[in-house]
Structures are given as C-alpha cells and as structure tokens.
Amino acid sequence: MSDDELIERAAEELRRPVRMDPAVDARVMATVHALPRLGAARGGSGWWAWLTQPLTVRFSPLGALGGAMAVLIAAVVLVPRLTPDDGPGGVAMTTALSEAELIAGSDSTHMVQFVFVAPTAHSVSLVGDFNNWEMDATPLSAGPSRSVWTVRLPLANGRHRYAFVVDDSTWAADPSAPPAAGDDFGVPSSVITVAERSS
Amino acid sequence: MTALAAPSDAVLVRRVLAGEVEAYAGLVARYRDRFGRFATQMLGSQEDAEEALQDAFVRGYRALGRCEDPDRFGSWLFRILVNRCRTHGAKRARRERTIVLDEIALKSAGVDGGAEAAAWREAIEWALGKLDEAQREAFLLKYVEDLSYEEMAELTGVGVSALKMRVKRACDRLRVMLREVERV
Asked: Which of A91, A80, A96, A75 has its CA nearest to residue A31?
C-alpha cells in the first residue's frame, strides 16, 4: 500500500458516520428553552408562560433523592430517530425529543408535566402504570406550532413506568432515564420517581 | 402516502428568529451526528464531544440573529463548533487528559468488520490523537470533512499556506505511525 493509499484508507475510515447520543438534542433544547426567546418577548401569559411556570430543580433519574427536593424535573429524550416509515400514513418524521417536568403539588402527589417535541406527529399520548397503559387515557396537546406536545397530570409519590406513543403506533422510551426492568409489553419504557417534598 | 419534505435550514432559522424556539430542535437533529463526528475525532472522547457539541448549539442559538445567511446555517454553526473544540481541547490539555478511543466508533467497527477492522480503527484513532491539535484539525477538515483550503481558511482564520503545511505534516506523521502499527 502506497503512502497516499494509507492516508486515504485512514480518511475513509474516519468518514464513517458517527451516531451521537440523541439526548444531546434534549439537553440543548432544555437550555435554549430557558433562554429568552428570539425575536419575541416572553410574555407573562399564554402557552409558553403556562409551559414554564413551574418552579423546577434538576431531577436525577437515579431517584433516591428522597425528601430533599422541593420540586423535581426530569428531562427525557424520546424517539431518538423516527424514519418516515415509522409514521403512519407515511408522514416524514425525522427526530423527536421530549422533556418532562415535575411540578410542585401536594405532599403526596405532584403535578407532572410532560413535554414532547415531535414536529410531524399527528398525535402523541402518554402511557404508564398510572393510567393502565391505556393509549386513549392521556393524550398530549399540541402547541401553536404543532411541534411541542404537552400534558400535565397528578402523580402519586413513588416510582412510575411510562412511555410515549406517537401516532398510535410508535412507542418511545427515554434513553436518558432509567429503562424499566421487566418489559411487560415487549416495548421500551422508562422510569420516573416522584419524591416527597421537603419542608 | 404523503411524505412531508423537511424544511430547509433557512426556514427553520427564520422560524426560530420569529420566536418559535422548538424549530431549533430540527436544526440540532439535522447536524448532531454530522458535527458530532468532527467533535469526537478532534477531542477523542465522546463525552467531551457531546459537551462541545451542546455548547456550540447553544451558542449558535444565542447568536442566531447574527447568522447572515440562514441557508448556510450549517457552515456557520460548524465554525462555532470548531472554535468550541479548540477551547475544549485546550481545557483538556490543561487537565493532561489522555485521548481515549471513541466508544461508538469502536462499537461500529466491531460490528462491521470484526477484530481486524476494530484494530485498524483503533490505530487510526490512536495516531490521530498523537497529532497536535492544529494538525489534527487541519487533517480532519481536509480529508474527512472534505473542505477546500479556501473553505478551511475561512473557517479557521488560518492562511492557506499554513493550512497546507499543517495537513502535510499531519499526513507525514500519520504515515509514520500507521506504518509502525502495520509492522506490529
């Protein structure tokens, strides 16, 4: 092999695609959502204000933070890459990601807000042990842009398994949250822990 | 069956600038892997690469109003990433960290070509990590990102002659190191 061929062979190897952790998307979007919105003042009312009103503290998916946390937040990434074939009706879906926030509630329950970014989805629903995994029980509502889907619901303190279902067909777990052990349904799911509020 | 065409960079940039924050997710998803490759190879660590990548995307968002040509958002953001990799590389040097192999690359090599391919990939990563950062950057931009010297000069702020010299030296060093590996 000549010197040039050696370098070209090395370059060819380095040109192979590298797949980064899709959780990067969620972390970036969580950060930019916290920044002032470009080109528009962030008002004190409306959808965005509703979305961001909770007091939040970073939530470790490892749980076990016990009563030390006043408020919890869990950032989760879902559907790292959906191909056009994944969407029913042939709708092109490239990437979707989501974020869930825990919002202060009572001592025994917390309002939990799930945010799911799926620009080309027609429907998104939340399923988990808290709603008997019923796809119709907890639909997410699309925001004005039809990209961000949200839902809020009260969850009792404790450990909950959950997943998202896109367009009634694609289940998505959260790669940045602990995967649920013992996959009863043969599909991925995640775990979120809701903890007691501290005084 | 209808497939929706993905919006162009310019469309997404304008939507973000109009206040639609979530449109930025489309740009992040579009460039995550492509730019992640450069960051991974520059920094030699997936963890450092993800950090630099996130940093670049967030800085890109903050400065999006200064992206003069939204159709060339990718090139604009890549420049930010190159600078972030330099900064992260400098931090790493101060920490005297050893360049480690890219876990993802090793996994893919193992899957696609078995032990021999994995060993070859490992050798390349090792040799790449032995280059000084300026040479590694120039080599990757030229041979992996396939940029012209003029594009590299615009991106890095370094003159074409100096870039050519860096690429030549990088190639010379890589040849020596890879030949050594071949002999083992």
From this structure: A75
Q: Complex ipTM, two decimals?
A: 0.82
Does the distance separating the beta carbons of B104 and A11 come in below 8 Å?
Answer: no
For residue B108, what are the CA distances in angstroms to A20, B30, B125, B136, B146?
12, 21, 14, 22, 22
Q: Distance between CA A104 and CA A80 in Å, rounded? A: 29
| Tokens linked to A80 | 């790292």
CA dist list (Å): B9 to A36, B69, B116: 21, 10, 40
Q: Determine which of B32, B46, B111, B171 to mutate to test the interface with A (most A C-beta atoms within 10 Å).
A: B32
CA separation for the pair B23, A19 (Å, rounded): 22
Q: CA–CA separation, A190 vs B152, rounded Å?
A: 44
The pLDDT, as a whole number, for residue A59 is: 37
CB B26 within 8 A of CB B12: yes
Q: Which two three-digit tokens encode residue A150?
A: 């949200």
Under 8 Å between Cβ of A173 and A163:
yes
- Collect the ranges in chain B with pLDDT lower than 70: 1-5, 90-114, 184
The Cα of B23 is separated from the nearest Cα of chain A by a number of Å equal to 8
Residue A110: count other Cβ atoms within 10 Å of its Cβ: 24
In B, minimum Cα distance to A23 occurs at B50
Query: Are residues A126 and B38 in contact, defined by beta-carbon separation less than 8 angstroms?
Result: no
A99 neighbors A30 (Cβ within 8 angstroms): yes
| A7:B175 CB<8 A | yes
Cβ distance of A89 and B2 shorter than 8 Å? yes
